[in-house]
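Morning. Coffee machine broken again, so started the prediction first thing and wrote up yesterday's gels while waiting. Chain of 140 residues, entered below exactly as on the submission form.
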Amino acid sequence: MSDFRVKLDGLLYSLLSWEQLAAFWLRIDASAGWYLYAVGQEVPTEMASAEQVRDFISRIDALLHAEHQERYCGIVYADDVDVPSFVVIYDPHNLGVSCGSSKERVWPGWIMSQVPPEALQAVVVPNNRKRWWESFLGRA
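Came back before lunch.
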């Protein structure tokens, strides 16, 4: 099993509150060598620049606050909440069945990884998410 799959299928800790998430973003070392992967889009082959990582964090945080209108966060997970090297972010509009009774695995919307990512099972990405990602990449 690849390092990426070991991380993805391993133990991840949830950032339950918005306050925890805000503090967590500040602990991410933007220059530590991150791959930014929008699941269902092209798998990145190069690490993002520190500026791109900071921009991604800013944009994804704004998206989560705007679209996950709950009193808690609970849709961002990391391998280590103090010194993360792998971060999984679920799309607020594709959370699936929360009790886990669905036989279909719900893939995250985005992954920040310090190990090279690999394509995950085919995911249909809504057009609004494609446009959001293209905008982030500066293509739209």
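The helical segments are 3-9, 18-27, 50-67, 127-137. Going to sketch it on the whiteboard this afternoon.
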